[in-house]
Write a structure and sequence with these properties.
Order of helices and strands: HHHHHHHHHH
Mean pLDDT: 88
Number of strands: 0
Low-confidence stretches: none
Strand content: under 5%
Structural class: mainly alpha
Radius of gyration: 18 Å
Number of helices: 10
Shape: globular
Length: 182
């Protein structure tokens, strides 16, 4: 994936990302051709492959750049309750996109968003060595990814209250206290 600073390439990357987010509303990622994506983005197939390795790589970029979630944005040191509220808002506000990601077998993009957001939260990983913090963060991100799937695919009409309570249970000391002992 392109990571340079060329303004034209960055604009093409953004256009491809926007096209992918739009086109996957109409049909699954696997049913889209690179030519369709490039045409909608007003770029070439060659430009697509210069910027991204695959459609999945491009979709992960689109999600990361356009729908990143931050648990520390509003509160520098969020509590478990703050994290659960922000997670609930993320799920409720992005249900359609999240359901499309699961439909297209892009769970890893959801996991990466959540793991990145959790990595800055001292309420989740207080004073842990880096390898322990990474393990705990990945464990919780996995649970939140499964929770996200449940409330976007399996129970898409679930209330925000139920989502928040499920998150609170997952993050409770009982659910992962043994992880912190590793």
């Amino acid at each position: 994936m392109y990571e340079g600073r060329n303004k034209t390439a960055l604009k093409s990357q953004a256009n491809i990302a926007a096209s992918l987010l739009k086109l996957t509303q109409e049909k699954p990622l696997d049913d889209l051709s690179i030519n369709e994506i490039a045409k909608d983005a007003k770029t070439s197939r060659q430009t697509f492959y210069t910027l991204f390795e695959t459609k999945r790589n491009a979709m992960a970029y689109a999600v990361r750049e356009n729908h990143a979630v931050s648990f520390v944005e509003k509160t520098p040191d969020p509590s478990i309750e703050d994290i659960c509220q922000l997670f609930t808002d993320f799920v409720v506000n992005n249900r359609e996109l999240l359901a499309r990601l699961f439909r297209d077998n892009m769970e890893s993009a959801v996991f990466d968003l959540l793991r990145t957001a959790l990595s800055d939260c001292s309420a989740i990983v207080p004073d842990q060595q880096q390898h322990r913090a990474d393990l705990i963060t990945s464990y919780i991100a996995g649970g939140l990814t499964a929770t996200t799937r449940r409330f976007t695919v399996d129970q898409p009409t679930a209330s925000a209250g139920l989502i928040e309570r499920t998150c609170a249970f997952l993050l409770s000391q009982n659910a992962f206290s043994n992880m912190q002992r590793l």
